[in-house]
Amino acid sequence: MQTIFVKDYDEMSKKAFEVLKEVIEENKEPVISLNTGGTPRGLFKYLVEGINDGLDISNATIFNLDEYVGPKNAVYTVRTYMYENLFNLIQNQPKQAYLIDGETENPDQEIERYKELLSQNKRDIQILGLGTNGHIGANEPGTPFDSTMFLAQHEESTIQSTMKEYGITREEAPTEMFTLGFSEILDSEKVLLLVSGEHKAEAVQAFLEGEITPECPVTALRNHDNVSVIIDEAAASLLKK
Fold this sequence. Notes:
This protein is α/β, with parallel strands linked by helices. It has helices spanning 9-26, 41-52, 78-87, 107-120, 156-166, 182-186, 201-209; strands at 2-6, 31-34, 61-64, 66-68, 96-97, 125-129, 150-153, 176-179, 191-195, 227-232.
């Protein structure tokens, strides 16, 4: 695992875009899997600017890490985020974009559909963020390190983060989420984890200096050569080493 320390959120976002841009430019038909939420907003801004300045994604295929269970057009869904922060803002669209259907009435069938698409499209990069309790996607504490795509129940801390991020009430907040498991995440050629902010400092300390355990899900990434982590000063503030 490679760890990159940067000054602040903007530097983290710029560095993440540089890595993603390199993947897009070096692969004839790049396959990228993105995450959403507060952490990658800066990355998305730089990606939109890059595409509109000529970065060619016409042969790219886009996947997503996860999707909330709820109405497709709800303010919190990954689908809404992807359109508002990427697809509606770029002049040229990717060749293909595969979104998880969080409105499905058959979750098992939707999981099998998405897993089949993943098996047909080897991902060149998977972007990740880190939850305050150490979760990755919706792989909450206690999730086995050999998890495959599943329908997860959110812990309360995750629900509270979603409420804060999207300005919604506890009643409006989703409590379930489709998520790639660690098996699919680590199957990507490159995994890039972005971490910013003092509120992530305890999770970063547990990740880099604590025990490797399913109780801190992100520690599943620690001993893998294809993982890079970009951490800003605030998120690294509790590290002792």
